[in-house]
Amino acid sequence: MSPWVVRANTRGTITSASSVGLAPRRPSLNQSGLVVRSKRLCRLATSILWQVVLVARGYKESPALLLVRFFIFYDILLLKIAHLLCPPIPKIMNSDILYFSLSALINTVTGFGLGLYVLLISFRRPAARNLFYFCLSITIWSFFYFLWQTSSNHEVALFWSRLLMVGAILIPIAFFHFVLTYLNLHKNNFHKITLFIFYFFSLLWLCLLFTPYFVADVVPRSYFKYWPEAGPFFTPFLAFFVSLFIYSFFLLFKNFKTTKGDMHTHTALLLLGVTIGLLGGSTNYLLWYNINIAPWGNVLVSFFIFLTVYSIVKYKFMDLKVVSAELFTVLFLIVFSAEIFFSKSITEMALRIVMALFMALFGSILIRSVRKEVAQREQLAQANLHLQALNKQKSEFLDIASHQLRTPLSALIGLLSMQYDGDFDSLSKAEFKQQQKDMLTSAERLKNIVHDLMDAMEVELGAKLKPEPTDIAKLAEEAINILRPNYEKKSLYLKYSPPDRSLPLVSADPSFLAHVFINLVDNACNYTETGGAEIKLFQEKNQVIFQITDTGIGVTPTEKENLFGKFIRAKRAMLVRPDGSGLGLFIVKKIVEAHGGEVKIMSDGENKGSTFKIYLPVKP
Amino acid sequence: MDAQKSKILLVEDESIIINMYRLKFRLAGLNLLVSPSAAEAVKMIEETKPDLILLDLQLENNINGFDILRLLKAQSETKNIPVYILTNKREHGNREVGIKLGAVDFLAKTDVKPEDLIKIVSKKLESI
Predict the structure, then answer these.
(1) In what helix (H) or strand (E) does residue A543 lie, and over which residues does it extend?
(2) Cβ–Cβ contact A576 with B under 8 A
(3) Which of helix, strand or coil describes residue B89?
(4) What is the pLDDT of residues A248-300, one digit of tens each?
(5) How far apart are CA A508 and CA A344, in angstroms?
(6) For residues B97 and B69, what is the distance between their CA atoms, to the nearest angstrom?
(7) What is d(CA A88, CA A573) in angstroms, rounded to the nearest whole number?
(8) Chain centroid to CA A537: how far?
């Protein structure tokens, strides 16, 4: 008889094989050892092959598939650790017992792998750190659960069963703390106090851990040779455990009802996870009270962790369709992969591996197509919103433009009809001249608005610039030469400081940029009554700067806010120049920005002049 | 009411339009008061109690003339003052809104010549 066979219904007086004078030995290459080694080899091969497939297909962006990869990889790693700590699984262990120990191993792998994953990608977020602690507490519970399940004697089983309760005590408080940070309630005073109280109680349970008041003993129950028996403080602990989870559920549900969009979906996943995990994990506590139901729901704890991590991982999962497709694929993949371990022969194992791989392949195709569909739908929705915004902009533009055109038109028609009706016959020469001036101004304003509207439409519709290496100094000098007569007519000075050294060329459309310089130099002339304007050109780092400073009407802080808007004209500007269109600076800004540049205005206020600066990037 | 003795308030922010109507009303012998802004208009209405108001819709700082109309019709002292909307905002719906809010009529500046406006205003004042 193998020294590792454990007699049923004993209290384990024989604690180990060494106590009966038999040295523990590694299994020889008998049937069970061959199967175990083959399983490990296949698992390792699957893991490596799967990772190669994932890398080749570039699935790094899919957390769902990444999680599967971690699951398989860490399974191998922890199996090796488990192998060092405990003897091989006894021969007589039937598949049911194997399920409970393996489910614990799966929970360990999932808990640790996913927790580490979340920590690595979102370390700075408090919710992510608390989620890691939650996953760590599940890892502790599951790992010692596995060791307890594979214990060979009473003392060892009692030890591991008490140790696993460390995890069980930490799980509810860690989850509650995570939920508080996730919902941003951790700074709330009430929740701070409740958290403190719950941590205090958790510490209390931990203190009772290695006493008979918590885990009294381990006794045979159902399939198990060593199942924990509840001490007097276990039931209050269980009430505490359930209450914390119910309260966490309540907070999540409240958030679910009041939120929309991504947060709503994330919370839905968490709620689903809590429900599955609680229902599955709670099957562990029935046997404590001699209710003859084994913990079949144990492995659902992995789904709980998976859904919790999935809900917090920050990536673009736009739709529940994508989430469902990924969950569906991962679920089937886990089931197919798990089935490999239950294969009765090498052939069956190989077939199951092939099926799992096919499942992975088709699942990935499904996920890709669903993602593509959702992404296209989102793009259409964005495009639709953009079109609606453009349509609204167009309507507003037309609305304002038509009003701006009609105003000088109505003045022109009104004054001409008055002249026609003979109203001007009784006017003095000066008054008549004023009316003529008003008519001319209206006509000029109409002309300017039409010209500027055409330019503004050209710019707004994204007229194609034809950039070429442009000498800014040359363009600026041309603008100055064109407008110098206007300055002389008003007895204003126009100074120009050429650059100290030749400026680098700028990639620009000369015709559009010339419009900018002419507009600014013309504005400086129009809005200055005495003094004049000074123009400077210079280079600063990778930019060429055109600067014009005038001694004109200046700009107040209020006027500055909307100066570059469409048809915006300060009242003072309208008095000085009634025929302005209100589009000039708007066009200047659009053209400069289309060249990758920037325009700024500085002024000390009313009647204190202003400085306009154009920054243009140097051609690389 | 004698139109020559009435007070007519023009609420308009465009100086060129103001100058034109000022001249026309002066030549017609009518007393035209002008307010270039909404805030000043409300103050002037309280102080001078005009007999008729000509109200533009697009005022400075993007204030809508309909808001002033609502305010006038909501107060017992001003609700009976006849208000004509005189505007270039001829877009669909503005006329109906104006009439619904209690304006006497909706006049487009480009369509109503100054002479015609004088006739409309005089006729209304004499009917009061």
Answers:
(1) strand A543-550
(2) no
(3) coil
(4) 999 989 988 888 777 787 888 888 888 888 888 888 888 888 888 888 888 78
(5) 75
(6) 11
(7) 92
(8) 44
Torsion angle, CA of A585/A586/A592/A595, rounded to 10 degrees? -160
The low-confidence residues of chain B, meaning pLDDT below 50, are none
Helix axes A510-526 and A584-594, enclosed angle (nearest 10): 150
Q: Among residues A260, A254, A213, A258, which one has the least CA distance to residue A237?
A: A213
CA distance A92 to B109: 102
* Amino acid at position A171, single letter: I
pLDDT digits over A437-460, tens only? 989 988 988 888 888 777 777 776
CA–CA–CA angle A243, A245, A247 (5° rounding):
65
What is the rounded distance in angstroms from the CA atom of residue A12 to the CA atom of residue A6?
Answer: 8
Give yes or no for a contact between A51 and A69, defined as CB atoms under 8 angstroms apart: yes
In contact, A170 and A203? CB cutoff 8 Å: no
Contact pairs from chain A to chain B, CB under 8 Å: 65
Q: What share of chain B is helix, strand, coil (3-state, %, to 5)?
A: 50, 20, 30
**A468-470 and A598-602 strand pairing:** unpaired
Q: Which helix (H) or strand (E) holds A495?
A: strand A493-497
A residues 407-436 closer than 8 Å to B (CB): 407-411, 413-415, 417-418, 421, 423, 426, 431, 434-435
Whose structure tokens read 């192998």? Answer: A83
| pLDDT per residue as tens digits for the range A379-410 | 888 888 888 877 876 777 677 777 778 888 99
Whole-angstrom Cα distance, residue A154 to residue A547? 89
Interface with A, mutate which of B23, B25, B85, B86 (most A CBs under 10 A): B23
Is A237 within 8 Å of A213 (Cβ atoms)? no
Q: Among all chains, which residue has been given the structure tokens 């994508």?
A: A322
Percent pLDDT > 90 in chain A is 23
Tokens of A121: 């990608």
C-alpha triplet A177, A178, A180: angle, nearest 5°: 65
Phi then psi dihedrals of residue A252, to 5 deg: -65, -40
Sign of CA dihedral A153, A159, A165, A166: negative
Distance from chain centroid for Cα B118: 12
Question: Which residue stretches of A299-428 are H helix?
Answer: 300-312, 320-341, 346-420
Are A508 and A468 in contact, with CB atoms under 8 Å apart?
yes
In A, which residues are within 8 Å of B114 by CB distance?
414, 417-418, 423
CA distances from A187 to A126, A170, A182, A190 (A): 12, 21, 11, 9
pLDDT value at position A77?
57
Q: Are A456 and A583 in contact (CB under 8 A)?
A: yes
Cα–Cα distance between B128 and B121 in angstroms, integer?
A: 11
Structure tokens at B32: 């035209």
Q: Please, are residues A290 and A309 in contact by the beta-carbon 8 Å criterion? A: no
How far apart, in whole angstroms, are the C-alpha atoms of residue A214 and residue A237?
9
State both tokens at A410. Answer: 């109505």
Return the top range by mean pLDDT from A89-103, A271-285, A604-618, B51-65. A604-618
Element spanning B54, H or E? strand B52-55
- Is there a contact between A407 and B115 if contact means CB atoms under 8 Å apart? no
Separation of alpha carbons A477 and A514, rounded Å: 10
Q: Which residues of A touch B17 (CB under 8 A)?
A: 407, 410-411, 414
Distance CA A516, CA A504 (A): 19
Cβ neighbours for A594, distance < 8 A, ≥ 6 positions apart: A459, A462, A465, A512
* Residues of chain B neighbouring A406 (CB-CB closer than 8 A): 88, 90, 109-110
CB atoms under 10 Å from CB of B119, counted, come to 13
Alpha carbon distance A332, A328 (integer Å): 6
In contact, A579 and A527? CB cutoff 8 Å: no
DSSP B62: G
